Amino acid sequence: MAAKKKKQRFYVEENETIDDCLSRMVKEGYMPVRRMEEPVLKEVKRNGKMDVEVARQRIVFEGKPVE
């Protein structure tokens, strides 16, 4: 059996709940140790200039292997 990574990130997908993501982590043998939010950026053209704005926030969990 291959050794698991010490840390792994799990992203909550757009059509997935937080509970679904946490269940997926447990199935893969990881327990959540940290929750983070990352901005998802998009480019928007305004008045002939390209501006960058936040489209939404993406939730990310960091997991460690269950021993």
Describe it.
With 67 residues, this protein is mostly beta strands. 15% of the residues lie in helices and 57% in strands. It is built from 1 helix and 3 strands. A 3-stranded antiparallel beta sheet has the order 1-3-2, covered by helices on one side. Strand 2 (30-46) and strand 3 (49-65) form a beta hairpin. The radius of gyration is 16 Å and the shape is elongated.
List the helices and strands and how they pair.
Layout: E1 8-11, H1 18-27, E2 30-46, E3 49-65
Summarize the structure.
The chain is mostly beta strands and 67 residues long.
The profile of the biggest β sheet is: 3 strands, antiparallel
Helix share bin: 10-25%
User: Which structural class do the helices and strands define?
Assistant: mainly beta
Low-confidence stretches: none
Anisotropy-based shape = elongated
Provide the β-strand percentage band. Answer: over 45%
Number of helices: 1
The SSE order reads EHEE
Strand order in space, largest sheet:
1-3-2
How much is the radius of gyration in Å?
A: 16 Å
